[in-house]
Amino acid sequence: MFKTAWFTAILSTVISLNVLADTAAPKYDAACVQNALETQSPDTSLQQLRDQCTLDQAALNQGKTALDARLLSEQKTKYDPFSLQPYRPNYLIIGSYNFAGTNERPFQQATLPQATHFEPYEVKFQISLKIPIADNLFGLGDHWYVAYTNRSFWQAYSHNISSPFRETNHEPEAWISFDNKMEIFGWRNRLIDVGISHQSNGRSDPLSRSWNRIYTRLIFAKGSSVFAIKPWIRIPESASSDDNPHISHYMGNVEFTFASKIEKHHFKIMVRNNFSETDNKGAMELGYSYPVHRNMKAYIQWFYGYGESLIDYNYRNNSVGIGVQFTSWL
């Protein structure tokens, strides 16, 4: 699926976006204030707006990155009781169309005849939050987090089968994040994360899907761009209890994510791959967003490959969706 040409094209896109981001990086002075006035909620105080822009400006003045500006903003609330922070992007796609057709095979095998009436268009949304729970326990610049991500696929327009949720994936995880200052080719390895993740769809057999992983995540930042490499190892399960055999073959064993903002334009590229020469599998996701009202952004997403959801881990999707995004990587 992903041959050398795919990676060459993706790498060229990443380099182009990074060059544009470096040359057009916002300065967060008057423009920062104007953007805040347009996007913040009505009860935001003048002092909060000042603090936000001052933090961003201070980070950039010190030669830091857009990722540093976000981390500085998070530090302001991390010690508040019950502090919740965005983790992965939060979005609502009101119309997602799958050109490959909806995967009905697992439901047919479960003798659910209504599955044959699934529509290729549906609603898709993601809710992702994290909670900081401790800081510097080891004295190594370590930060401790727990998080939860929900990704759902809703047949909202299938009224003939009562608009069911076709699939919902739950992913709780915990990790330790270490500050770092190492630079490679001008990219600063800002954070090194070590964590554990459980992902499941909360169903019983034969539709049950779940797996557990231990991962490392290296996050690099430069100007208004961020690049993350996330390799993982699946925690083995016995053959009798494994409800998604060969998931690592389809989902791959490493994920690459690049995100950048050029003024108000936000771009994201995600690539997963198993690096198999004989049976190459993986996935690619492209996203673009632009602010339209307060903290709401118009959002376009394209996904191609395996593992868009757990029920589709061995099914190749090709979906395009349009909706709104509320938080992003930067």
Name the poorly predicted regions. Answer: 19-29
Structural class call reads alpha+beta
Distance between the termini: 30 Å
Strand order across the largest sheet: 2-3-4-5-6-7-8-9-10-11-12-13
Number of helices: 6
| Share of residues in strands | over 45%
Taking all Cα atoms into account, the compactness measure Rg is 21 Å
Number of strands: 13
Globally, the shape reads: globular
Element string (H = helix, E = strand): HHHHEEHEEEEEEHEEEEE
Helix content: 10-25%
Oligomer: single chain
Largest sheet report: 12 strands, antiparallel, barrel
The mean pLDDT is 85
Task: Provide an overview of this structure.
With 330 residues, this protein is an alpha+beta fold. It has helices spanning 4-23, 30-39, 46-61, 66-75, 105-109, 247-251, and strands at residues 85-86, 90-98, 121-135, 142-154, 165-184, 187-200, 210-222, 225-234, 254-262, 265-273, 282-293, 296-306, 316-327. It has a twelve-stranded antiparallel β-barrel. Helix 2 crosses helix 3 and helix 3 (46-61) packs across helix 4 (66-75).
Concise description?
The chain has six helices and 13 strands. The protein has 330 residues and is an alpha+beta fold.
List the keywords.
single chain, alpha+beta, 6 helices, 45% strand, globular, 13 strands
Helices, strands, pairings?
Blueprint: H1 4-23, H2 30-39, H3 46-61, H4 66-75, E1 85-86, E2 90-98, H5 105-109, E3 121-135, E4 142-154, E5 165-184, E6 187-200, E7 210-222, E8 225-234, H6 247-251, E9 254-262, E10 265-273, E11 282-293, E12 296-306, E13 316-327
Antiparallel strand pairs: 1-3, 2-3, 2-13, 3-4, 4-5, 5-6, 6-7, 7-8, 8-9, 9-10, 10-11, 11-12, 12-13
